[in-house]
Design a protein that fits this description.
- The chain is α+β, with helices and mostly antiparallel strands.
- The chain contains five helices and four strands, in the order H-H-E-H-E-H-E-H-E.
- A four-stranded mixed beta sheet has the order 1-4-2-3.
- The longest helix has 21 residues.
Length: about 180
């Protein structure tokens, strides 16, 4: 029985040695993983930006364009004893409203005039009503009241001298003048 125990013990020891064996070969150097970052890839050189040639786009001076657009539209004429802005002058008022909307520094005097008929007081009041009628038209087009000032000269500054219907028609007016 003792002999069988020795054989059994030897077999167990041999099995333990076989079980503890490893497939890893210790004689070979260990593999080392290389984790160093790869060298930076050099980017292809960017071409230098070429200097811009002079732009083909022209600069636009909107203030100057608007001033030129209204240069020949400065007078609104009225019928005899009337202060109603006629439809034919709507474009004049709209052009000035557009200009005032763009050119924030521009302010207008709305100078009301009357022909020589009628008394001085009456013509001053009629000239004022004509100027205020144009002012109201500007207001309806969105122009702020501080951008214009209605004033009356009555019959004191006629555009045309004379006592004919043609001369009177030229004197019944509102002039839209830039304030200086």
């Amino acid at each position: 029985m003792k002999k069988q125990s020795q054989i059994l013990f030897s077999l167990l020891a041999a099995a333990a040695l076989v079980g503890c064996s490893s497939p890893v070969k210790l004689d070979e150097p260990a593999k080392v993983e290389d984790r160093t970052p790869p060298p930076p890839v050099s980017k292809p050189a960017q071409p230098e930006p070429k200097p811009m040639a002079d732009s083909a786009v022209k600069r636009v001076d909107i203030d100057a364009e608007q001033t030129a657009a209204v240069s020949d539209k400065r007078v609104v004429y009225f019928d005899f004893d009337s202060y109603v802005v006629k439809d034919e002058y709507r474009g004049v008022v709209e052009a000035h409203a557009k200009r005032l909307g763009i050119s924030k520094a521009v302010r207008l005097n709305l100078e009301g005039h009357a022909d020589e008929r009628g008394g001085r007081e009456y013509n001053l009041a009629l000239g004022q009503k004509r100027a205020e009628a144009v002012a109201k038209s500007l207001s309806l087009l969105g122009v702020a009241a501080e951008r214009y000032e209605p004033v009356s000269f009555g019959k004191e500054r006629p555009a045309v001298q004379g006592s004919t219907e043609e001369a009177w028609a030229k004197n019944r007016r509102v002039e839209l003048q830039d304030k200086k």
